[in-house]
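$ ./design --mode recover --in tokens.txt
reading tokens...
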């Protein structure tokens, strides 16, 4: 099954509706039906005390990846929103770009459960593991 949205279509939504994505230096690199890869460019402004990338920035990256996964299944919809996000920080990320690899676990008519693995670029060790649920607005084509 092909993605129901392209990277340029996703980028147009992000440019118009989510300026924080640009502020944080995030970019969608790959999207297929139910999966994606999103990059957050390293910026010294994202470092918190202790020399690690701030948790809120990593959560934002994971949330964007979940959003892209949902859009890949249902196409461009305005009100697909996060209803739950759980993150387990596993290790300190290096001062490098962060990579989010997202995939759908289960998608239905009203909810999608998504999983995201976060990595520092070039390091195979996972930095954080994220699971979340997105609400799919009524009347949206079935994601399942």
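writing sequence...
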């Amino acid at each position: 099954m092909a993605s129901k949205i392209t990277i340029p279509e996703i980028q147009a939504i992000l440019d118009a509706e989510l300026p924080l994505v640009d502020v944080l230096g995030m970019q969608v690199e790959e999207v297929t039906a139910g999966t994606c890869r999103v990059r957050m460019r390293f910026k010294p402004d994202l470092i918190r005390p202790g020399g690690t990338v701030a948790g809120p920035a990593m959560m934002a990256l994971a949330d964007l990846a979940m959003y892209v996964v949902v859009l890949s299944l249902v196409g461009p919809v305005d009100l697909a929103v996060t209803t739950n996000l759980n993150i387990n920080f596993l290790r300190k990320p290096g001062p490098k770009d962060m990579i989010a690899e997202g995939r759908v676990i289960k998608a239905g008519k009203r909810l999608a459960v998504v999983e995201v693995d976060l990595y520092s670029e070039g390091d195979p060790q996972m930095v954080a593991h994220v699971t979340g649920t997105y609400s799919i607005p009524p009347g949206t084509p079935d994601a399942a």
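exit 0
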